[in-house]
Automatic annotation (TrEMBL), chain A:
Record protein name field: LPXTG-site transpeptidase (Sortase) family protein
Origin organism lineage: Bacteria, Bacillati, Actinomycetota, Actinomycetes, Kitasatosporales
SUPFAM superfamilies, alphabetized: Sortase (SSF63817)
A molecular function GO annotation: hydrolase activity
Entry keyword Oxidoreductase: no
Top-rank taxon: Bacteria
Active site: H131 (proton donor/acceptor), C200 (acyl-thioester intermediate)
Transmembrane segments: 12-40
Coiled coil regions in record: none
TrEMBL record, chain B:
UniProt keyword annotation of Transmembrane present: yes
UniProt lineage: Bacteria, Bacillati, Actinomycetota, Actinomycetes, Kitasatosporales
Name of the protein described by the UniProt record: Uncharacterized protein
Membrane-spanning segments: 13-32
Keywords assigned by UniProt, alphabetized: Membrane, Transmembrane, Transmembrane helix
Length: 233, 58
């Protein structure tokens, strides 16, 4: 009888009102999910990546005698610098491309389906993936990378300077050949020292993959002050 | 639904407003901490790797 008193609503009106409230609630939850995906996951991942990056740099400083090749890759193998994606842009590179690894706000190098080569290997393709949106969104601005731009990988003791020679702005997510050791789709037929960045495209979806290929131009020893190579200045 | 909750909260209107706010924040916390992290991998918005379709990304 209380509902009758409140405004003389019958059971049908009361039911419709409850359904309406549930629908509004669902809408709010979806809106919150967008906030979570595009903002909160970035906050968490950036915090995590920054801390992990500091740990790696501390380890480098504490163990100067260990060469880069022998380093435990648990915390990360080095940093990727891409001036085209923003001045002072850098992202930690870790082993693996599982959701767990990538959600830490890092770039992960492939272990499967095609295992990545390391930048210090005599030949091979150094392949990696990172999120386009959310969880740090480290490759969000991948479309700002153009032919001829520099991609620099910083290991403990060496700057590996790559030059972008091919961009594939859309391919199937099953196209694992883009990460081949000799990426034929980029026009290469000979073994060389390549780098491949992969992420999803268009932004905010995972329909296709976006690929950027680069080739090593030179490797430069890191000096005591860790002076940046000219490409990053 | 919300009317029912409001009528069952104790205290005057101010107390009820404060309790409502706390409840709403608690719900947002539960969503961000537990529900969304669980739901996100089930949704096809954020797969960035190339794979052979064997759920390598998961």
């Amino acid at each position: 009888m209380t509902s009758e008193k409140r405004g003389g609503r019958g059971p049908i009106a009361a039911t419709i009102s409850v359904i309406g409230e549930i629908l509004i609630t669902l809408g709010l939850i979806l809106a919150l999910f967008v906030v979570y995906s595009l903002w909160w996951t970035n906050v968490i991942a950036d915090r995590h990546e920054k801390k992990a990056g500091q740990t790696v740099r501390q380890q480098w400083a504490q163990h100067p005698q260990i060469p880069a090749k022998g380093l435990d890759t648990k915390d990360g193998i080095g940093f990727l610098h891409v001036p085209a994606m923003g001045k002072n842009y850098e992202v930690l590179v870790k082993k693996g491309t599982s959701t767990k690894v990538l959600n830490e706000g890092v770039a992960g190098y492939y272990t499967k389906p095609v295992a990545s080569a390391m930048p210090w290997d005599p030949t091979g393709n150094f392949t990696m993936a990172a999120h386009r949106d959310g969880h740090g969104a480290k490759f969000h601005n991948i479309d700002k990378i153009h032919l001829g731009d520099a991609i620099v990988f910083e290991s403990k003791d060496t700057w590996y300077v790559y030059k972008v020679y091919k961009v594939l702005d859309q391919t199937s997510k099953y196209n694992v050949h883009v990460t081949d050791q000799v990426p034929k789709e980029s026009g290469k037929n000979q073994p060389g020292r390549y780098i491949t960045l992969t992420t999803c495209t268009p932004v905010y979806t995972s329909r296709y993959r976006y690929i950027v290929w680069g080739e090593l131009v030179r490797a430069q020893k890191v000096d005591a002050q860790r002076t940046l190579p000219p490409e990053l200045r | 639904m919300y009317g029912w909750i409001w009528r069952h909260l104790p205290g005057n209107a101010w107390a009820r407003a404060v309790i409502s706010l706390v409840l709403a924040l608690a719900v947002v916390y539960l969503l961000f901490q537990y529900v969304f992290p669980w739901a996100e991998p089930l949704l096809p918005f954020n797969d960035v790797t190339v794979d052979n379709g064997m759920a390598a990304v998961r």
